[in-house]
Amino acid sequence: MSVPSKWKIAQHWDESPTREDFAPYLSLDEPCCFACGWFSERWKQASAQASWQRARLERAHIIPSSLGGPDDASNLLLLCKPCHQESPDWVDPAQMVRWIATREERPSRELETFLAWFAAAERAPDFKDALASVVAEEGAAERVSELLRDLLGQAGTHFGVGFSQGTRVAVLQAAADEINRRAQQTGLEADESRSVDIQD
User: Fold this and answer.
1) For 194, how many CA atoms within 13 A lie in the half-sphere containing its CB?
2) Which of 110, 91, 122, 95 shows the shortest CA–CA distance to 40?
3) Taking the alpha carbons of 148, 149, 151, 156 in that order, is the dihedral positive or negative?
4) Is 103 exposed, middle or buried (0-12, 13-18, 19+ CB in 10 A)?
5) In this predicted model, what pLDDT tens digit does every residue of 96-149 receive, in sequence order?
6) pTM (2 decimals)?
7) CB under 8 Å to 137, separation ≥6 — which residues?
8) Beta-sheet strands, E only, within the chain
9) Nearest CA to 80 among 127, 116, 112?
10) How many CA atoms lie within 13 A of 109 on its CB side?
11) For residue 76, what are the β-bridge partners?
């Protein structure tokens, strides 16, 4: 028997009388981790079925196959990677229910990414100072955004993680250095221009 699709698993739990126990965050319209509610706006497709298939959720056994659990929808949940890694491998489904009930809700992938960048900015005070020095300039937001995109193009990622927190801090520090360098260069050019004006 083949493993059911994510869509089939979602449909099964949407109709299950034990849905609230095993899939408290489930909504067929928007894919999410059954245990914590984590989702991504990027999963949205033309149909709910396509969205569930695109979702970066893992099939997790309630009763592990190593303990005799079947590969059917009634024994499979859709979990985000952290939930799947932390879920119990146990023969009694009641332990999975108990574990799910204790999971904290997670924000969307996009909000988590924003919060990670915000935390990185806290660890890169030079970036905050550099940003404050140019924020009032016309077109500053576009220039800083372009600079950050360029720097991200130079950054590597960890497999399964994306940009590490250390990489985010490094990108922001490099951005601060570049903003300060440009400001210094603009200041020198302005001084030279004033000097030429005075001599004339």
Assistant:
1) 6
2) 110
3) positive
4) buried
5) 999 999 999 999 989 998 999 989 999 998 998 998 888 888 988 898 989 999
6) 0.72
7) none
8) 58-61, 76-79
9) 112
10) 17
11) 61
